[in-house]
Amino acid sequence: MNFAPPRAATGNVQSLDEYRAPRAPLRRQVSLDEERRDDCQGHWRGPYLEGAEEEKGVRLFRAMLLQHLRLEDLRPPPCMVTAANPDDRGWWMYWRDWRSLERAVLRFRETKAKAQLAARAEHIPLLSLDEVQFEDIMQELCQACVHIEQRALLVMAFLCEVVGRAVRVGGWCRAADWAAKHVAQCATPWAVKHGGWSAVVERAGGPRRDDALLAGAAIAALLAFLLFCRSRLRQALL
Q1: Could you tell me the pTM of the whole model?
Q2: Are residues 215 and 169 located together in one domain of the fold?
Q3: Is residue 108 part of a domain?
Q4: How far is CA 88 from CA 52, 56, 59, in A?
Q5: Do residues 73 and 115 both lie within one domain?
Q6: Within a domain: 33
Q7: Are 183 and 189 in contact (CB under 8 A)?
């Protein structure tokens, strides 16, 4: 008995180039980020950081991105959690800038512009994009919002949407590198012309009512403690 499989008729075989019917979608391309997770050492200390304002802008963008990923229920890759260059002014000044930026971000998430930026980011082919094409997209966005008062923060919000999508579909290392470089080289000069990053985020964040309440509560607690120590000392002396 012959167990050889029967040969298909050659006349019925059709090449893929001639096949016009709809095909099943291809599997998502695996990015280099997923193949080499341990090679990336972070994105916040690149050679494009030439001054204090560039470092401050990248540091604020990192905090803004991590908050965006948390609000979108996305786990950040380890390379995004790595620390940025510390603020020479101390943690208090950085915390004050971040609190102002955080208030601006939370207000921005309630506007229609947030949904528009997210929809625009969804149409960016991250896995087939190079840095030149990425910068072309960013330049188009900058030209579209040239008359917007908080232009730098709008650009940073769009970059958060782009990197957040990259975390979902792949290509996050390239996206984070390009985003940090754009913040340092393009958004920071605009911020410097408008008083620096601290002034920009303070205007965007509005009045610091919660910070004033915290400062008042701290002063009141300190005065109460001093009065208590004074009364205890008087009782001990008597």
Answers
A1: 0.69
A2: no
A3: yes
A4: 9, 10, 12
A5: yes
A6: no
A7: no
**Interval 16-41: pLDDT, tens:** 344 344 433 333 444 555 545 556 77
63-113 tens-digit pLDDT: 999 999 998 899 988 888 888 877 777 777 778 888 888 888 888 888 888
What is the distance, to the nearest Å, from the Cα of residue 148 to the centroid of all Cα atoms in its chain? Answer: 20
Question: What gap in Å lies between CA 65 and CA 151, rounded to an integer?
Answer: 17
Angle of helix 172-182 versus helix 131-144 axis, rounded to 10: 50
pLDDT confidence of residue 14 = 40
- Do 139 and 180 share a structural domain? yes
Kindly report the CATH number assigned to the domain that includes residue 142: 1.10.437.10
Tokens coding 84 = 């940025």
Judge if 217 and 126 occupy the same domain.
no
Concatenate the DSSP letters of all residues of 11-62 into one string: GG---GGG--S--PPPPPPPPHHHH-GGG---SSS-TT--SHHHHHHHHHHH
Q: Whole domain around residue 226: which residue ranges? A: 208-237
Is position 83 within any domain?
Answer: yes
Residue 188: CB atoms within 10 Å: 26
**109/157 Cα distance (integer angstroms):** 9
- Extract the tokens encoding 36: 């080499």
